[in-house]
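Quick one:
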Amino acid sequence: MHVLVVHNRYASAQPSGENRVVDQEVELLREAGHRVEVFERRSDDIATRSLPGKVAVPLLVPWNPAVRSELAARLRADRPDVVHVHNVFPLLSPAVLAACADTGVPAVATLHNYTQICPPGTLQRDGRPCTECVGATPLPAVRHGCYRNSRLATVPLAVSLAVNRRRWWSGVERFLCISAAQRDVLSRAGLPAERLAVKHNFVPDPGARRRGAGEHLLYLGRLAEAKGVRLLMAAWDAIAADGGVGVPLVVAGAGPLEREVTAWAAGRDDVRYVGLYDRAQCRQALARSVAVVAPSTWLEAFGLVVVEAMAAGVPAVAAGHGAFVELVQDGVTGLLHRPGDAASLASCLRRITADPAGNREMGRTARRRYDQAFSPAVGLERLEEEYRTAVAGRSGGADGAPPVGNGNAGSRRGTPRGREWGQ
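Output:
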């Protein structure tokens, strides 16, 4: 097949799992013999713009007419079989869907988070679940400044969500959810269930698996409140006060809590903050882990680090909500703790380190689950299947808008995804 991938790349200063997923899918499809091209913008380029250009960026979030024209010309010239849309925030906008409609090319969209129903895409506010904007106008997000704690910064996302619902409804043949948990949330919120398919992210075989019991517990990810970093620090302090678990905690990543984590880890023998790891260092750290810790307080749509741990034959300790519930089989491939509960997290970390034989069996089972559900072969099969379905269904796509909800489990929908202006 001839596939055009559309993606706004997040900033390179903070490594993005979404960027990695897109790159891996492109490589996978090309290796399978498909012709794959990329239409992209890079958030890194915002820094090189003139001051007026930077000021204009928020205006492009709901709609970028230049992108519509450029992409439509590209589609008319190249005539791909299908367009695969990933992130369109902040420089592409839903204008990419108009270009697909202009040229009659079917579009598939991977939903990497919840921005179809929540301006910041997290379904969370002040560390707690929030659904105020689901099925309603997104004014609550503006009132609370849900994006970057800024009302002004939230406005473009809220406007885009409000004005582009019909465009997303009519312009996408297949929405690819990265977990069943995400699909269920979006379906209950009013997205068309018949066009919501589950396609898990795949992970390349790392080529390095754990041998022995492991040397450390590993947190590998963004240092942010929603990722449960403060929760992990509280749980680890409780463990340390009780004598520890015999192995250190390694924290790898960057983000808004980096200074706090650096100060917390300073001078301790039981914690090592190592900053950002490159991909080779990540693989090595995973293969030396007793377990990977994923204590997110928000409803993760997937959980890439958990699957990367599976590929390395390493169990995970994860929050018992969102996608983690389907990724981690509690007591079989890892342990699930009560979300937001530091004592429960501490208990699971003690358990995962206290039984080396049981831990190794969990790791072996996790690797078998990776082979069955998250390998490149499985990922390729699902991608090809969804592309064929989109192409076959192009002439029969729905073109109406969903009914307006009442602000609870409503039915309004559609918006580009996005997280950081600099990403």
